[in-house]
Automatic annotation (TrEMBL):
Protein's organism: Nostoc sphaeroides CCNUC1
Low complexity bias spans: 11-25
Name of protein: Site-specific DNA-cytosine methylase
Biased composition range(s): Polar residues: 26-37
Residue stretches of biased makeup (Basic residues): 1-10
Annotated region described as Disordered, given as residue ranges: 1-37
Length: 314
């Protein structure tokens, strides 16, 4: 008796037929497709809702909080320091700032100094500090700093010079908040215009004043011999090499010519031993000699230096 075809075979056959038909249809579409480069893509525009009055107000308030952050931090730190509100838990203000905020001594000083600069800028334009909270940043009638780095170059200037620098920097920035680089350039330009003539002489012994010059870090209090003079700086030979130092970072010891010559000889001796690459402990000793505030070596210092000189000769 012949077998009847099964339903499964019919279904498979039907599916195969449909698949072949679909494939043929796709091939037809591909063969008729135009060049992709000339195809038109339709993009549906998405409407962005406008901010409500309440949202506009919230945005303005939050922006001002961001802009005032460094200023408010500096004022708060100054009050904590001046009123000694840290005394119940810490012996010193530096310890308190490191423990409570993770701030270094340098960072705290930057913030406090920056807040004072903002006060001076506001005082110079408004004549009052009463409106500083409302006008801080770019959203008020006055353009004010929004970060500590923007005002750092101005912290060593007199208040009236700070105001002059800031107004010039805002103008150069096209009426917007200037970058720290713009402010620094303006400060440098003003300092060069008001710079006193270079009166230092070759062979003169000077003390290094680091101030805010990071390139001179570790050289505070060191002495050096002027080996070259420029318009706004001197090349100074120290115990570990030569450095170009701005006039504002130098202070003469006013030694007599004989004392200057004596210090020049000592500097050369120290430098020869240092450049020989002896142990770190020896270098620390030489660094200590490089911070002497007198024009001579003691008897013991002379003996130790002589021993080190004989060591490098051997």
């Amino acid at each position: 008796m012949p077998k009847l075809p099964s339903r499964r075979n019919k279904a498979t056959s039907a599916a195969s037929t449909d698949s072949t038909s679909a494939a043929n249809s796709v091939n037809e579409d591909i063969s008729q497709q135009v060049d992709p480069g000339s195809a038109t893509i339709t993009v549906t525009a998405v409407e962005v809702p406008e901010l409500t009055e309440e949202e506009q107000s919230d945005r303005l308030h939050l922006e001002r909080r961001v802009e005032r952050a460094f200023f408010e931090a500096g004022k708060a730190l100054a009050e904590l320091r001046d009123r000694r509100l840290y005394r119940s838990t810490h012996k010193t203000f530096d310890e308190y700032c490191r423990s409570r905020f993770g701030y270094t001594h340098r960072h705290v000083n930057y913030l406090i100094a920056a807040s004072n600069v903002v006060d001076n800028i506001v005082m110079g334009t408004n004549g009052s500090q009463n409106e500083i909270s409302d006008e801080m940043g770019t959203n008020g009638s006055q353009i004010l700093p929004t970060s500590e780095r923007q005002v750092r170059p101005m912290t060593k200037l007199e208040p009236h010079k700070q105001q002059e620098v800031w107004l010039t920097a805002v103008e150069l920035a096209g009426g917007k908040v200037p970058t720290g680089r713009i402010v620094k350039d303006v400060v440098q330009r003003i300092m060069e215009l008001t710079q006193v003539p270079n009166t230092y002489q070759l062979g003169e012994v000077c003390q290094i004043l680091v101030k805010d010059n990071l390139e001179l870090r570790g050289k505070a209090g060191c002495w050096g011999i002027v080996s070259a003079t420029n318009e706004f700086s001197c090349t100074v030979r120290m115990w570990d090499g030569e450095y170009a130092v701005g006039l504002q970072h130098l202070k003469s010891y006013d030694y007599l010519p004989a004392e200057c010559e004596q210090m020049r000889v000592i500097c050369d001796r120290i430098n020869r031993v240092y450049s020989s690459g002896l142990e770190e402990s020896v270098q620390k000793f030489l660094e200590m000699l490089g911070k002497l505030n007198r024009a001579y070596l003691t008897g013991l210092e002379e003996k130790v230096l002589t021993v080190l000189e004989s060591e490098i000769r051997d």
